[in-house]
Each structure stands twice: as structure tokens, then as C-alpha cells.
Amino acid sequence: MTEYMKGPDREWLKKRLIYAACFMMAAFSILLARLVYLQVVEGKKYRRLSENNCVRLRSIKASRGLIYDSKGELLVDNRPSFDLKIVLKDAKPLKKTIKKLSSLINIPFDDLMSKISNKKNLSKFKPYPLKNNISRDMLALIESHSFDLPGIIISVEPRRNYIFHNSCAHLLGYLGEINENELKSGRYPGVSGGDSIGRYGAEKTYEKILHGTRGGQQIEVDATGRLVRVLKTVAPVPGRNIFLTLDHELQEKAEAMLKGKAGAIVALDPNNGDVLVMASSPSFDPNDFIDGISPVKWKLLRDDPGRPMMNKAIQGEYPPASTFKIVTAIAGLEEGVITKTTTEFCPGYYKYGNRIYHCWKKWGHGTLSVEGALEQSCDVFFYHVGEMLGIDTLAQYARGCGLGRLTGIKLDHERPGLIPTSSWKKKRFGVPWQGGETLSVAIGQGFDLVTPLQMAVFIAAVGNGGTLFRPKILKYIETADGKIAMKQEPEITGGIPASPGTLKIVRQGLLNVVQGKRGTARRIRIPGIEMAGKTGTAQVFNLKKKNRKKDKKLDYSLRDHAWFVCYAPAEKPVIAVSVLIEHGEHGSSSAAPMARAIVMACLENKGIIKKERR
What we know:
Largest sheet: 7 strands, mixed
Helix content: 25-40%
CATH class of the largest domain: Alpha Beta
Structural class: alpha+beta
């Protein structure tokens, strides 16, 4: 054997061993070089990636509380939304990732980049929304290219949904994304950038109740930020639900009658101030605001002459017209310038100084008491009462009746209206008050301005015996497990400055408006039910009557506003209604039938009268 290895074969084996050793050395050299390259040359890059392969905390958005009407009908809920987000820490290289995403979802690259670059102090680790509520097709497309889109994630978030779209929009309000100043203010604890908060209506008023508390997850992600596993979850606490005083069935009836018109209808429970109806027309769809309203839609809303973004029930300020005669009657009776038996002859005009003030009835009403003057809405009678009272006394009673000041309803942007005084005019215009101006104010014209809600609160107080309630929209708050957390109690803000005797006289006059033979609203009687109310026609443009009759095609913007306020049943009311139709011309023919329909629907629902077949 030894002799054999000493031959040529030994040399051959020696060469093979040398080749093998060289090969192994080369392999180890390559491996060593690669290790040096990875650790020295590319060390920073892979150190960053290894740090990225770590445990993170991911916030979980809480579902917003639901909103119901007084009968438990769901008005606002939440629907699942697929939201496209970016984590800047993982989206490397950023521009390349955004370009790829832009080509997939057909959103311009600059638009996507601006969403990121316009935000200061944006966290690199927190997901930031690029587009909310993406379609399922877009979801599938992004998921199929997920390996090409580092840092791009899709989360399922609760999205606000206004079930009836335009219905109750002004009362419910809408959401909008929180801005940087609001985040820094500290007024919104638990709210993060990209979250939405209440911007209007009940959504804003009860933001803290509805918002809920965020939860979170402890997750492990890989080097590209993709989820590896969930380590721990703390469930979010949903916002509490609120039940409004609103009766949505009545609300829809009011909105249907207002369709195609501009105006407002308010209905209250005169015994506690509950807002049963708050309809303002035209309206808008709060769903359009959830992800940020488009410039096109916003321009349409902004430029609409009907002012759909204005809640006319609390922001619309209008001359009260003849509905103000209730105040003049109360003031006259309380001040003793008239009594129940005082009469005034109406020839169709009233002479004051060198001017003639006309009554709405050309040939006059003849001799009337205060009850008859309310029934037939005689201007001449109230011209005389106003002259005897003076403007400052009239203003004192008007403000005591809740006019010219905020009602205190918990909704933003309520307007106070205006009840003029002599000092107000002097300050505002620098000229003294004129006696003739008092005559106009006494019948609800001139500088007088009120809101439909103010008139609803006032007529409700007349109906309930004189108590002014703060109108309220919240019935109670409910926890997520169905327990009542808080009930909203009635709040009295004052009383009408009138004795029981005065109110009895005034109430009889208002009853005659509907139930009397010559009442201006006698055509809206409800069989078996006595209703009390007052019509009003507010002059918008000072055009003589004869010219108004000649010009049957009077421009819409110059036509009179139509008013009607009422309560029913007259002896023990359960509902008070205020209707204002912009440029509706006549309260008796335009506004009063709408109030009748609301009253009838309410009384039917309560079983006070039988439902009519319609």
C-alpha cells in the first residue's frame, strides 16, 4: 500500500487537496468580504432596518356615540370605513413609494405629497390618513401591491353616517377634521391629528359626550413596517349615545312641507321646553363634510340664495309682524292704557301727526275690543295702544317676553334679534326716536327682529300660563351598555310680565283667531280641538298696497314673509308651533296650514284625536 501511494497517484491526491484548500479559502474570503461590506459599508442601513423590526403602539379609534330621536329612532350611526394611511418611518424611499401609490389609485402625486408636507410636526411612527373611505376595488389593488408600498397601510375605522341625509341637518350638525391650533389648545384630550370633531349642531355641543376614548394595540412589525403579530390589545371605549327631544316623524313632516321654500318651523313642548321640531329650509347633507367637502359642493352651498348653511330657526332674524301684537296687548293691559272693555274704532287708517298709517283692511274693522283686535289683527287698534305706551315701555315688555335676547338653547350661532329703544336708535344712528316709529314697532314692523325659535318659546309661554322655558334638544345620555347616565331637566328662564287676568284676555283673543267667526286663521280649524294662534305678514319692502296689487309678478325677494304661531289644545296645550316662510306673503294662507299639519300629527300620535285617512 505504501509503495502504491509513493507513485503518481500520490501527486494527484496532493494536487486535489491543494485545489480544495484554495477553494475553501476563496469561499471564506468571499464570505468575509461580504460580512465586512454588510457591517461596515452598509452597516447604517441595516442597523436602521433592524431597529425598525420592533414593537410599536398603534392607536385604535373609538366609535362615536350614536344619536337617536326622542322615540328611539336612530338618526346617526357609524359605518366601517377603509382608510388609506402612511407611516413615514416605514415609507422609504418616500417619493418612490408615493409615486407608486399615485399611479395605482389615480390621485396626483402632488396632491398626496401636499397632505404630508402641509402638516407640521407630523409623527414618523403614527399612521396619517391619505384618503378615507376608499372603495373595495382600491383596497384590493393596494393589498396586491403591498410589497411595493412600504409604510402604506389600510385600517378599518368607524365612519360617521347620517342616515336621513338632509333631514335634521341643522340640528344634528356635522364633523370636520381637527386643526393644529385646536390640538394644541388642550380642549380635545385624546384626539389626534387626522381625527374629526363636531363642527356644528348637536355634534359640536355634545362633542365630549359623543367622542369616546381611544384604545390601542402593542404590535410587532417587520423591517418594512408590516404587521407580524399583535402582542396586546386594549379595547377602545365608545362614546356615549344621546337621545334628543326631537320627534323625527314630526320633523320629516315639517321638512316635506318646507321643500322648495325658504323658512323654518319650530315646535316645542310648552310644558318643559323640549324641541320637538327644528326644521330649516333649504338644508344640506352632513355626510358631505365627513371627509372634507369638495370645493364644488361648498361653492354650491355658499352661493345658494336660500342660504342652506344657515339654521333659520335660530339665526334667521325677521320682523315679527302681527305676531308682535300679542306683546303690545300684554303691555297695554298691564300698563292700564286699555282694559278688556276698551274699544277703538277702525276706519281703515290711523292719523298720527301729518301722516296716515293704514290698516291691512282697507275699509276698516269698525269698533273692536282688544280680543277682537287680536282676532282680526287690526292694525289701527294697536297703533293707538303703541302710541299710548311709547317705545321704551313696549321694549321692556318685549324683552320680558323673551324677544330681542338669546333663548339659551345649547346650539352655537344663535342670534338675539332686535327690540329697539330710543337710546338704541340714538346710539346706532345718532338721531332721536320718532313717535311714528313706535306705531310701526307696535304691529311688529320697523326695527323689530325676532327668530322663529324666540317666537316658539314666547307662544309656548302664553299657552302654558306664562312660564318661559329654556328650549332644550337633549333628552338624556345613554352609556354603551344601555344605561341612562344623565337626564336633561327642564330649566325655567323667566316668566311673561303679565298677570293671570291679562293672560286670560290675551289667550281668548288668540283662541278667537282660529275659532272665531272672523279670525284670520279660521280656515285651519281642527274638528274637536280648539287651537289658539296668531297670523302675521311681515313687510320686506315698503311698497304701497295699490302698487302691490297692480304688480302681481312682484319679485320674489320683495314679497312679504309669512308668520303663524300657535298652541293646542288651547286649554291645556301639548305643543306650540312657530312657522316662518320667507316671502310666503300671507301668514293665514302660507304658514298657518303648515302649523295645523304639525299640530294634527302631534295630537294624533298622542291619541288626543283620531288619525285622519290620507
